[in-house]
Specification:
By secondary structure, the chain is of the alpha/beta class. It has 3 domains: about 1-315, ABC transporter type 1, transmembrane domain (ABC transporter transmembrane region fold, Up-down Bundle), CATH 1.20.1560; about 320-420 and about 500-510 and about 530-585, Rossmann fold; about 425-495, P-loop containing nucleotide triphosphate hydrolases (Rossmann fold). It is built from 20 helices and 12 strands. The protein has helices spanning about 1-5, 15-45, 50-100, 105-110, 110-155, 160-205, 205-210, 215-240, 240-265, 270-315, 380-385, 410-415, 435, 445-455, 460-465, 480-495, 510-525, 560-565, 570-580, 580-585, and strands at about 335-340, 360-365, 370-375, 395-400, 405, 420, 430, 470-475, 500-505, 530-535, 545-550, 555-560. The strands form 3 sheets. The chain has a 6-stranded mixed β-sheet with strand order 6-9-10-3-11-12. Helix 17 links the parallel strand 9 (about 500-505) and strand 10 (about 530-535). Helix 3 (about 50-100) packs antiparallel against helix 5 and helix 6 (about 160-205) packs antiparallel against helix 8. The two termini are about 70 Å apart. About 35% of the residues are buried.
Length: about 575
């Protein structure tokens, strides 16, 4: 319940509606509780005495009270819905903002599928319980207490039935709650499993088709789906036993009330209207207990969702700004790594960069305007290295500086505004090509968009589309080729006019001819900017001012192409494997 209490703060902006809804429900309950006593009056005073005026007047009063109660119930539903919907909208918005603040490390721990589930299904579960609480939480207890008091006032003798029926009903409710609560927690877990399978399949549908694994995925989904169904059925079996037992108890109570009341009617100590009113209150009391039990079970089911939501809200972004962080930053672009080691779990003994047996950190300097190329086998730490520059991750030891300023001393937004990044996976968003290119600079002019596209060798293919730059990009750029997406991603990075440009293997999907054109264009665009280029093809790095060869998280060699060709066996092996033995002499 701790998580639910913490989430209650999202109701504060809607406190007026949250207060009005229960108040209106009190009005409805009060009107409902008066009805059986009025029925008693109609029977005992109107019908028994053949006084039609009492019947008519009381009937009209009952109609009036029913209308007032209906207005109260309608108003309660409206305001409860408004409060619950506002609560859900604000909670989703806060969750989304929290996810946006997460660093790469946080997102590594929290799976995308789980985050999607928490922002959708879990929020809906909690939102529905809030709406239910604002209505039934007031109605059920008030109806329970009110009906019990009115039953006692109607017939203290028959009220003794509650001493027998009450413990029986409470026992049934307690048994159902104790059995159903953990079962519904498992239902939510099975739902998470199902959503994960479904998301993985939809995201990787092309891989599924390419490897003809549709049948396998159908089986996976069927397994998860059946597990969810089986667990839901098991929980439902426990819950559905409540109604038969409750109705049995109610009917026993009704039979007992009629039997005992009938005996008293025959001796003249009770009237028929009293029995009718008492039976009415008896049924309302017992049904209110059922409503309370259902409310408790639904609340328990939503508790698991509240816990998952609170886990996201309490997850602190790993990358934080210092209190005195520099907010105005306009560097020239000198980037230096000073004895840097890095590991994803913060353990220097399990370093991805630096450390290891040699216990040496990564150290090098990129002067303003230089192009630094990074080569190495898969897993050598290339991407990890360049992710430290914009603080996607923080170094474990050492420091990364730009113009002598530690990047950890600079405000994250101010730092990243000076760094343009084209990541290895080119992610595009729904919208037009123009919108995607100016994603980092929404205020960029059309001329600037076109200039960036030309520099990235994207202008030609963009203008070949019927709508040109206004062409709608499908989900994740599905209507574009890999090379086209990469060029748009490069244009997006160039448009921000960065001091430091990072290209993480961002030309791997373009042909060699296009790559050469992109490199020629970048020479002019980035003449006074520092560039970091990760590449798999040796042809990409031939003209770089500095080449770093990474091997198992260490700089195995550093220099220009000609220097490395003469001094580094690793670089020479890469060069000859891609361009052939004869290329050495040619070089």
């Amino acid at each position: 319940m701790k998580s639910a209490y913490k989430l209650s703060k999202f109701l504060k902006p809607y406190w007026r509606w949250a207060v009005l809804a229960p108040l209106l429900m009190v009005l409805e309950v009060a009107m409902d509780l008066m009805q059986p006593r009025l029925v008693q009056r109609v029977v005992d005073e109107g019908i028994a005495r053949l006084d039609m005026s009492i019947v008519i007047n009381t009937g009209l009063l009952m109609m009036g009270l029913a209308i007032v109660g209906a207005v109260g119930g309608f108003g309660c539903t409206v305001f409860a819905t408004l409060a619950a919907q506002g609560f859900g909208a604000d909670l989703r918005h806060t969750l989304f903002r929290q996810v946006q603040s997460f660093s790469f490390g946080n997102l590594d721990d929290l799976e995308t599928g789980q985050l999607v589930t928490r922002l959708t299904n879990d929020v809906i579960q909690v939102q529905q319980v809030v709406a239910m609480l604002l209505r039934i939480m007031v109605r059920a207890p008030l109806m329970l207490v009110g009906s019990l008091l009115m039953a006692i006032l109607t017939s203290p003798k028959l009220a003794l039935l509650f001493l027998m029926l009450g413990p029986l009903v409470l026992g049934i409710v307690a048994w159902v709650i104790s059995r159903a609560t953990p079962m519904f927690s498992l239902v939510q877990a099975k739902l998470d499993d199902l959503n994960t399978v479904m998301q993985e399949n939809l995201a990787g549908v092309r891989v599924v088709k390419a490897f003809v694994r549709a049948d396998h995925e159908v089986k996976r989904f069927k397994t998860a789906n059946n597990a969810l169904m089986d667990q839901t059925v098991r929980a439902a079996r426990v819950v559905v036993t409540t109604m038969p037992f409750m109705m049995l108890t109610v009917n026993l109570g009704v039979v007992g009330a009629i039997w005992l009341g009938g005996l008293q009617v025959t001796v003249g100590t009770m009237q028929v209207g009293q029995i009718i009113a008492f039976v009415n209150y008896l049924m309302r009391t017992l049904m209110s207990l059922l409503m309370v039990s259902m409310l408790v079970m639904n609340t328990a089911r939503a508790q698991a969702s509240a816990d998952r939501i609170q886990e996201v809200l309490e997850n602190t972004p790993e990358i934080q700004n210092k209190p005195d962080a520099v907010t105005t930053f306009a560097p020239l672009g000198k980037v230096a790594f000073e004895n840097v080691t890095f590991s994803y779990d913060g353990d220097s003994h399990d370093s991805v960069l630096g450390g290891g047996e040699s216990q040496q950190g990564i150290s090098f300097v990129a002067e303003p305007g230089q192009t630094v190329a990074i080569l190495g086998a898969t897993g050598s730490g290339k991407s990890s290295l360049i992710y430290l520059i914009p603080r996607f991750y923080d170094v474990t030891e050492g420091r990364v500086t730009i113009d002598g300023v530690d990047v950890r001393d600079v405000d994250k937004d101010a730092l990243r505004r000076n760094i343009g990044v084209a990541l290895q996976e080119s992610v595009l968003f729904s919208g037009t090509i123009r919108d995607n290119i100016r994603y980092g600079r929404p205020d960029a002019t059309d001329e600037e968009v076109v200039a960036a596209a030309k520099a990235a060798q994207a202008h030609t293919f963009i203008t070949e589309f019927p709508d040109g730059y206004d062409t709608e990009v499908g989900q994740r750029g599905v209507n574009l080729s890999g090379g086209q997406k990469q060029r748009i991603a490069i244009a997006r990075a160039l448009l921000t006019r960065p001091t430091v440009l990072i290209l993480d293997d961002s030309t791997s999907s373009v042909d060699v001819e296009t790559e050469i054109k992109i490199q020629d264009a970048l020479e002019d665009v980035m003449k006074y900017r520092t560039s970091f280029v990760i590449a798999q093809r040796i042809s990409t790095v031939l003209n770089a001012d500095k080449i770093l060869v990474l091997d198992d998280g260490q700089i195995a060699a550093e220099g220009t192409h000609s220097e490395l060709l003469a001094s580094s066996p690793i670089y020479r092996e890469i060069y000859e494997s891609q361009l052939g033995n004869g290329a050495t002499n040619h070089a």
